[in-house]
Please model this.
Amino acid sequence: MTRRAQEYDDIPGTFVFDAERSRQGYGINMFCMSLMKEENRKAFKADEAGYLQRFQLTAEQRDAILERDYNRMLELGGNIYFTAKLGAADGHSFQHLAAVMTGASQEDYAKMMLAGGRSVEGNRSKSGKDRRAGEKRKANPKSKPKSKPSARRK
Amino acid sequence: MAKIIAGVGSSHVPAIGAALDLGKTEEPYWKRVFSGFEPSKEWMARTSPDVAIVVYNDHASAFSVDIIPTFALGCAAEFPPADEGWGPRPVPVLQGHPELAAHIAQSVILDEFDITVVNKMEVDHGLTVPMNLLFGQPKDAWPCPVIPLAVNVVMYPPPTGHRCFMLGKAIRKAVESYPEDLRVVMFGTGGLSHQISGPRAGLINSKWDKAFLDNLSRNPKKLTRIPHIEYMREAGAEGIEMVMWLIMRGALDDDVAEVYRFYTVPASNTAVGHIILENKRKGAAARKRPAAGRTRQAALRKRTPRISGLSQSKEAR
Model:
């Protein structure tokens, strides 16, 4: 079953945890939640694949977890507040995870944050839709007409 | 009668809690953040509210994905800090105000906000970090009881900004119909711009944040029209939690005094924003509204026919 396209799929580098992903990723997130308990962390560490059998996971989801492919986990319905628990169980800081997801070294990621973070310029839209919206906002501070042109384009 | 006297907006970055707990507040990186809240702590000590209503979100602590309530009101007598994987934060257990909370629940449900009542709940950094930032680090007990209002902003879609704003108005109405003279401060927490998930993680948009704070103060109705997609595009996938500030704002007068503001980038992955807004009509005893014709709103009401006046949200309280 393919995922229905959503307006927010146009935001680059972003997997919105919506109701559909929440349904799909229930097993991933409940697995991550289970790692809040020390005994479960131990059981998982002792036999990762075996432990994962306790949860309803597709083969893709299981592989993403075993490979610590955090972006793939998000794409398949994981939520960051949950998957961060897996990172913590592995002994990683959140910054480490953020760097992994962005494909940067942790040092470079930390530098980027200190310098004010990732700019929104050039990061609003895959399709370029946002540029018009962005320009409109500057030209006309009234937010009302903003959504109309994009609605018409659909 | 109880009365909402002021609103506080504050980020609730978990790393701020960790910095407090690990004694890092004097490190230059963290000092930059904490120094911005020194005047706020003084303000809070002076204001000394009887109750704080804290709008926040749970981060996979009290709620997993088994149950995802959109609005969950804490009606318990106490709320222990949650274990978020490193043991519970070393902060005092929060005392609730079950009588006022139950009154609010009853009132807002009859006002068509179908909130979830929670009689047992642990609270995570989303609530305890703003408490620390405004009340400091008390050892044994917090200076006032707290009513937590947990909002789903983790699963899309969170409630709309408009819905949040209107819930704030309904909460105000509920508070004002509570017989005891209580001075209530309302917190809206979370944000400001940040994205912590996916390849776009690290996004910060200071320009957008500043406009948000400006409008929050002076033109909140404009914010109620921002669609979710704009929050996510402009302020990051997790920045959408800024809708929670609109519950706080909706509970205040349309016209407020901005008494303090602070903004700094970054704390961990997040832009830290903070604002204090006071209602101009103060004190639990000041229940009388200004005489008709004395305010701009009242003058407007006089000029417009009653029916169209009713459709304006300012009439909802």
Summary: The longest helix of chain B spans residues 161-176. Chain B touches chain A at residues 15, 59-60, 64-66, 68, 83, 85-86, 154-157, 193, 195-206, 208, 222, 225-230, 232-234, 237-238, 265-266, 268-269, 271 (CB under 8 Å). The mean pLDDT of chain B is 91. Residues 69 and 152 of chain B are 6 Å apart (CA to CA).
